Amino acid sequence: MTPQIADLMGRIRVLESELDAELAKRAAELRIGLEHGRIAFEAELLRRHRALRQKLLPYLFGADPLVMLTAPVIYAGIVPFLLLDLFVSVFQAVCFPIYGIAKIKRADYFVFDRHHLAYLNGLEKLNCAYCSYANGLIAYAREIASRTEQYWCPIKHARRLVGAHARYAAFDDYGDGENYQARLAELRKSLSQESLAKGE
Questions:
Q1: 25, 110, 123, 155: least surrounded by Cβ within 10 Å?
Q2: How many domains does the chain have?
Q3: What is the distance between the alpha carbons of residues 81 and 88, in angstroms, rounded to a whole number?
Q4: pLDDT tens-digit profile of 87-103?
Q5: What is the pLDDT of residue 24?
Q6: Can you name the residues that pair with 35 across neighbouring β-strands?
Q7: 39 belongs to a structural domain
Q8: Distances in Å between the alpha carbon of 44 and those of 32, 53, 54, 124, 143?
């Protein structure tokens, strides 16, 4: 990795920290807090949220019929999602210890907190739970796949990759055969060091 790329990656991390701070400020402005690890709203805000909730029947009858027809297609995705979840969890449990790769804490990728929002009706809460699961699962699977790629083939592509994972920028340059074996050993070692840093 060139010094310029390392510098850019460092600046991205700084910007991500700044974004986290701004999001935390916005949560404070909305008067959302945590009490003993649970989400808490001020009583007045909670009362206003309940007043904003759309009743279930008007919500259903007001929906676009085409949207209603696509709902079974969306929810049919639960089957492949569950199979993917099972596969990547077993894959990580079996392979990562053998490769010396730090295991990923599954709970870090699955956040189910939208059901606390009093302005959502039951169906909206179900939809939110489904989306949280699907997107959390994809992020979880992506992290497992990115660590696996870092172990087996940490080489950038010749063409620009849209939506590259966070580890990609540190991969070896495409066509840099002279440094590949040394970089492979470095990148594998860094996966083991993540394991040690996490106390695994």
A1: 25
A2: 1
A3: 11
A4: 999 999 999 999 999 99
A5: 78
A6: 38
A7: yes
A8: 12, 15, 18, 22, 40
Is the Cβ–Cβ distance between 132 and 114 less than 8 Å? yes
Q: What's the pLDDT tens digit per position in 12-65?
A: 888 888 888 887 787 777 666 666 666 767 777 777 888 888 888 888 888 899
Could you tell me which of 102, 107, 100 has the C-alpha nearest to residue 197?
Answer: 102
State how far the Cα of 57 lies from the Cα of 55, in Å rounded to an integer.
Answer: 6
Query: Which residues, listed in sequence order, are joined to residue 124 by a DSSP beta bridge?
Result: none
Please check whether residue 26 lies inside any domain of the structure.
no
What CA–CA distance (Å, rounded) separates 10 from 42? 38
Residue 8 lies in a domain: no
Partners of 161 in beta bridges: none
Mean pLDDT, the chain, rounded, equals 88
> Looking at the chain, which runs of residues are DSSP E strands?
32-35, 38-41
Q: Which of 140, 130, 139, 144 is nearest to 77 (CA)?
A: 130
Tell me the per-residue pLDDT of 72-83, one tens digit each, with 9 for 90 and over.
Answer: 999 999 999 999
Q: State the Cα–Cα distance between residues 146 and 184, nearest whole angstrom.
A: 14
> What DSSP string describes 35-49?
ETTEEEE-HHHHHHH
